[in-house]
Design a protein that fits this description.
about 170 residues, alpha+beta, Nucleotidyltransferase, domain 5
Amino acid sequence: MTQNTTYTMRFRRRREGKTDYHRRLRLLKSRIPRFVVRVLPRQVITQVINFNEKGDNVEACASSLELKKYGWKVHTGNVSAAYLTGFMCGLRAKKRGISEAVLDIGLHTPVYGSNVFAALKGALDAGINIPHDEKCLPAEEKIKGRILAQNLGREEIQKQFEAVMSEIEKKVK
């Protein structure tokens, strides 16, 4: 009977397909806070996270479900909601003194113009300096809800977007 095995068990989160440890290590070595974007079917979650040896510290966070408090009445998983969530998180991070970050999209496939990059655009407009390529950001009409309004046949979505944006600027600053 043998005493050792030649097989090494991988980390649990790697086995479950939740964490890419090589990418995480590269992001942590930069010693810059991470702007983390997680897109779920019905919401978008954004966080600004600093690394600590005892565990990550969340400096600022926002969820698209919070937009309902500001008057958002449309689905919270679309591009406009992702932009507003990134904007809200960016303002909260600026309030905490964070001026730069690096984008962490986790295991999401980077698709130009997607919700991940809409949240990035929101954080950029809030004043956070995040390295990016301009081609990846969604078009303005997609962010402001013009395409969504055309598809749903509801023109009030654009007005609602502007109202929610101004409410966020008032209450978060």
